[in-house]
Design brief:
By secondary structure, this protein is α+β, with helices and mostly antiparallel strands. 28% of the residues lie in helices and 34% in strands. The strands form two sheets. Strands 4-3-6-7 form a four-stranded antiparallel sheet, with no helix packed on it.
Length: 155
């Protein structure tokens, strides 16, 4: 006659296995919930802080000799801004760039000025007689703090 494990021992093994799986899932769920909560808190803090963000476009320089478009900006708000995107109307063509300028390791602090410098191809945008007519600047960490100005600056 063959014998298996006793019903009591089988019940104890099943309960122990169930408790182990529940502990692993509970630990994973708690860790995931904590991480999500921290990310949401950071986003909310940034949104609240962004309500006091304000930038201004102080000056535009367009040079077809050096093939540079330079945009001087000022942080008039109370939060550091970084990773600026620029859309400019140059010679009736949209010019877009999101490189250069203050970034996450060296943001533009409150009250500070910076010059965003971009390559501006003279054949495509900044040729002789071209003009910058509109500039839009937006920081990545507070996109609602954008600034748009109309200019008439020749290259």
């Amino acid at each position: 006659m063959k014998k298996g494990i006793s019903p009591l021992l089988a019940t104890v093994v099943l309960v122990a296995l169930t408790i182990s799986i529940a502990a692993l899932l509970g630990s994973w769920l708690a860790s995931t919930t904590r991480m999500q909560t921290e990310m949401i808190e950071e986003d909310i803090k940034e949104q609240v802080n962004c309500s006091s963000a304000l930038i201004d476009i102080a000056d535009i320089i367009c040079s077809n000799d050096s093939q540079k478009l330079q945009i001087a900006i000022v942080n008039l708000g109370d939060i550091a801004l970084r990773d600026f995107s620029v859309i400019a109307t140059v010679n009736n063509t949209f010019y877009s760039n999101n490189t250069g300028g203050p970034n996450s390791t060296d943001p533009l602090g409150p009250g500070e000025q910076a010059v965003l410098t971009y390559f501006c191809n003279r054949d495509q945008y900044c040729g002789s007689g071209a003009a910058v007519t509109k500039v839009y600047v937006s920081p990545a960490n507070c996109p609602q703090a954008y600034m748009e100005k109309t200019f008439n600056v020749g290259c």
